[in-house]
Write a structure and sequence with these properties.
The protein is mostly beta strands. About 0% of the residues lie in helices and about 50% in strands.
């Protein structure tokens, strides 16, 4: 059965209404050019600087061909977009460690919006996640910018999931999904396409009453998909160690820019210590704690992009000190190694 809802001179069509409770009004608005807002980490909060160098480089979801429109779900409504995860490593397992998405808002709230993103391993076309409302991963993103004057403002947000990665084992060749829930009635996602397995549709749930509203699209144009990139894998810069605290240790870095400076940093544990990189002139958010942060060594990588540093490491560092490398020419960060 098909029903048509006319809103803002654009039709939104109910694809399958077997479980629909009633017709729902949907606001579709013209978007403007997104501004970069910053990076949010569930562990440390919102930082208004770019921090994509902590994410992996493998795109497992890439629904990012943006239209000129955004849509508004309404407060406490969950819209779930389907996709098929790209199998980037050949083993059917992905650990999502970063998100990038765009949204727009007319809510006069410069830095106080809130969104919850849910990620689902299994989501069926026009029925939604198999285990809804139970998600495989959920992230509450706070202090997001809205509008300063009630005019439409659009934003790009990075979400750093290092330390709280979303491990997905299903969805390859089948449909996975992600959902979003906003805390206000004036904000919503940029409508986008291009993702692997994106079906030009989304499912709609009312989160307070736990009701499935239906399966929707926008009549074919704009595309009924929401802007989202999900990243997995490791960054190009890799740190490995040999030896152990209480004796000599060697710290080897690969994947650096050939013949450019690599710095080896350490601190008492993991965190989000912010440093100024004097080479690039940029602010970089490391994966290390503030406490005890220091630079152990810096030196040019060789012509193959490799760097090595050896030192005697006290036994007191065991289970206390974490180490990370940075490619100073491009702010690239390695994985963090706990001693």
């Amino acid at each position: 059965m098909h029903q048509t809802l006319l809103t803002c001179a654009i039709s939104i069509v109910l694809i399958s209404s077997a479980y629909s409770q009633q017709k729902q009004g949907v606001s579709i608005e013209k978007a403007v050019t997104p501004q970069y807002a910053g990076t949010f980490s569930p562990q440390t909060g919102f930082i208004s600087t770019k921090n994509q160098n902590r994410m992996g480089t493998d795109l497992v979801v890439n629904n990012a061909i943006q239209s000129n429109y955004f849509a508004i779900p309404g407060m406490d409504q969950e819209w779930v977009d389907n996709n098929i995860l790209m199998d980037t490593n050949g083993n059917g397992f992905e650990s999502v460690n970063g998100l990038i998405f765009n949204y727009c808002s007319t809510d006069i709230n410069p830095l106080g919006l809130q969104q919850t993103i849910h990620v689902y391993d299994d989501s069926v076309y026009c029925n939604g996640p198999v285990n809804w409302p139970v998600a495989d991963c959920s992230y509450n993103i706070t202090n997001l910018p809205g509008s300063t004057n009630g005019m439409t403002t659009c934003w790009e947000i990075e979400v750093d999931l290092i330390g709280v990665e979303c491990d997905l084992t299903d969805g390859h060749g089948g449909s996975a999904g992600w959902g979003q829930v906003w805390d206000n009635n004036l904000t919503g996602p940029v409508l986008s396409s291009g993702g692997n397995g994106q079906t030009n549709s989304f499912t709609w749930f009312e989160t307070n009453t736990k009701i499935f509203i239906g399966c929707y699209w926008f009549g074919g144009s704009p595309w009924a998909g929401f802007d989202m990139q999900m990243y997995s894998g490791n960054s190009a810069l890799t740190l490995t160690t040999t030896g152990s605290p209480g004796g000599p240790m060697t710290f080897d870095v690969s994947g650096a820019t050939p013949q450019e400076i690599v710095a080896l940093m350490y601190a008492y544990g993991r965190g989000a210590h912010v440093v100024n990189n004097p080479i690039s002139g940029n602010i970089v958010v490391t994966g290390l704690a503030d406490r005890g942060f220091d630079v152990a060594d810096y030196h040019d990588a060789d012509h193959n992009g490799n760097y090595s540093f050896s030192a005697f490491v006290s036994s007191a560092a065991a289970n206390l000190v974490s180490v990370q490398a940075i490619d100073a020419s491009n702010d690239g960060l390695s994985n963090v190694v706990d001693l």
